[in-house]
Design brief:
Blueprint: E1 6-9, E2 15-17, E3 33-35, E4 51-53, E5 60-65, H1 67-70, H2 81-89, E6 92-97, H3 111-114, E7 117-123, H4 135-152, E8 158-161, H5 182-190, E9 196-199, E10 213-216, E11 219-223
Parallel strand pairs: 5-6, 5-7, 7-8, 8-9
Antiparallel strand pairs: 1-3, 2-4, 10-11
Length: 253
């Protein structure tokens, strides 16, 4: 089970035993995705006479980040990189990625008692590209935010990412941005904490692959030679069709 625009996954759904012989076999795993930036509650649960046995919640991966962590262009929360990373580690996921966010002290209030993560990933910095900023102020924000993370979860191993490769075709850097200094700031501030390890964001994404992306702003239409976004595939309801010809590569669909 999943919902669009989702941010965090719940504990595994209880296993089901004693199913009626005419009932379809239960799924091996059901995942719930809770909507981002909106409240929700469980209204009702309907059963068919089967018995639910509760299972223990796995430890969580806590991801603190911006739209890159939120999975803004993934179209499916299950294929966002935080979900894939949590799966590979055998952990549940609490994804606190929020579009447009930067290192903002004070935003961890309320998380300490609600989340007990086994690992933490911090991914911010890209949005300093789009605003005039002063390196001194940004360093104070990064230093304070990472101090709050370390103080809230002092024993939890934390990976702090530097920024990912990017292009400036659709969204160029602001002329007065201090973005060029952000990676160095992140490294210096994270080095203050023994629980933190810096992950080189430039090594996570091959900058050469950016040329393979056909995009409309931040919306990925087509990874050339791989897959096309479901939102841009031609269907019986399509009213407009964009035809793109790529020379020197391979075709797909």
């Amino acid at each position: 089970m999943s919902t669009a625009n989702a941010s965090a996954s719940a504990c595994p759904v209880p296993t089901v035993t004693g199913a009626s012989p005419w009932a379809p076999p239960p799924a091996g795993r059901v995942r719930l995705w809770l909507p981002c930036l909106a409240g929700c509650r469980l209204g009702a649960v309907l059963g068919d006479g089967t018995f639910a046995e509760p299972v223990a919640c796995p430890p969580d991966l806590l991801v603190l980040g911006d739209s890159i962590a939120q999975g803004f262009t993934s179209l499916d929360p299950a294929i966002s990189w935080p979900a894939l990373l949590a799966d590979s580690l055998g952990l549940g996921l609490v994804n606190q990625g929020v579009g447009g966010q930067v290192f903002q002290p004070g935003t961890l209030v309320g998380l300490a008692g609600a989340v007990r993560p086994e690992h933490i990933v911090v991914e911010f910095g890209a949005n300093y590209r789009f605003e005039p900023c002063q390196a001194g102020r940004v360093e104070q924000e990064v230093r304070t935010y990472l101090y709050e993370v370390a103080a809230t979860w002092p024993e939890v191993p934390t990976w702090v990412m530097t920024t990912l490769p990017h292009t400036e075709v659709a969204y160029p850097n602001h002329l007065r941005s201090c973005f060029a200094e952000v990676d160095g700031i992140i490294r210096r501030c994270a080095a203050r904490h023994g629980s933190m390890r810096v992950v080189d964001g430039s090594a996570l994404l091959d900058a050469g692959d950016l040329a393979r992306l056909l995009a409309d702003g931040s919306d990925i239409l087509w990874i050339i030679g791989d897959r096309i976004s479901a939102a841009y595939k031609v269907t019986a309801e399509s009213q407009r069709i964009l035809q793109a010809e790529i020379k020197g590569g391979s075709t797909h669909e």
